[in-house]
Write a structure and sequence with these properties.
Mean pLDDT is 89; it is low at 1-22. Helix 3 (66-77) packs parallel to helix 4 (99-109) and helix 12 (261-275) crosses helix 13 (294-317). The protein is 45% helix and 15% strand. The protein has 13 helices and ten strands. By secondary structure, the chain is of the alpha/beta class. The strands form two sheets. The chain has an eight-stranded parallel β-barrel, surrounded by four helices. Strands 9-10 form a two-stranded antiparallel ribbon.
Length: 318
Amino acid sequence: MSELAPPFKAWHDFAMMPSTPVHPVRIRRSVLCVPAANQRAIAKVASLACDAVIFDLEDSVAPEMKGEARQNLADALSQRSPAAMETIIRVNEPGSAFHAADMDCVLACRPDAVLIPKVEEPEDIFAVLDRLAEADAPESLRIWAMIETPKAILNLTALAASGRTQASRLDCLVVGLNDLRKSTGVLPEPGRSYLVPWLMQTVLAARAYGLDVIDSVSNDFKDLGAFAAECAQGRAMGFDGKMLIHPAQIGPANAAFGPSETALREAEAIIAAFAAPEAAGMGVINMDGCMVERLHLAEAEVLVHKARMIAEREKASR
């Protein structure tokens, strides 16, 4: 076969990339957002049971407090234990007056990820990627992207596709419904019925390219019943976890997005069934009248692995 000529060779190289890059399994049931200007809230984080924390330099921090907020993070994250929860810094959007200083803060603090707000085009992600590459940031410093504008919803496929290779650093999409409601006029009604299509579209794009996806915040942190219902809805739609605004929401989110005892028992049964000698080399087996494929085995192994990670974390925190 003759060598492919441009532009076909470039397309061939792109097409041969893995569609679902393999990232380390992370537990992201509860992702608490903490204003970086609030020293008291930052100090409390270490005692909380959330899986991840977003230290916010954007919407929750007034312009005159941005510098102080960055210093708070420099002081707090310099003392972070390697075994601590996943840490993310949300910067101000690329092109804003605060973005460059925020990125300097990220590079100095070395969190697990940087969260880019109001992402609308792949170029928004590439700009941050270039800044990290120029600074020779470690590959472990990942990128998360906020999906919170109409243009982001329309460009979801392109945005998620920018995470197709490990070099992109993109690991996770986070839905921001407050901004999306504001820009579309959709009312904040219970059940989020008019928002479900956009939520599902975000999940679909994330899964197509091997990304995690986090459901939006629930603003009424006092109504934990409504919050639990929204968590259950997000879990049913396929989200990995939920962005939170108050510590009271951590427990319900962990319960909703963690493996249930029933699901864990089923996963262990599937693993045991495929490990049996009679299942050797089989792609499909019969379990109690149900067809179970090896793709279900892969899902079961991930679920059991996550359950063990959660148990180890809970044991270490006691």
